[in-house]
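Narrative of activities, Objective 1.

The group set out to show that a structural description can be obtained from nothing but a protein's sequence at a throughput compatible with the screening campaign. Below is one input-output pair from the validation batch, recorded exactly as produced.
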Amino acid sequence: MRQRLTKSVVIFHSDRSRQSSNAWSLDTIRVDAPFAGDVLGVKIPDSVDQVTSKLGKPISKVTVPLFVKTQTFQYPIDDSAYARPIATGDGVQTIFIVR
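Output recorded for this entry:
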């Protein structure tokens, strides 16, 4: 399920209401402009060079040649969560925090 919290923050969660509790599990957080904060020091619209200078070499990198060349990087936050900045030629456009 998807829920927009603010203009720039969306959460994705699993509905666990069919199980023993009526809770849900947070799976992913997505931040887009005009998000003014940072994730691991990365801000929207940092350049790819700024991302790698702040965080070093990513544990994975995927380049997708869509209409605009898109690069996705993955950096560990801790042992169970990852930050995934997504950048185009204009810099970071979106940052996902995933479990």
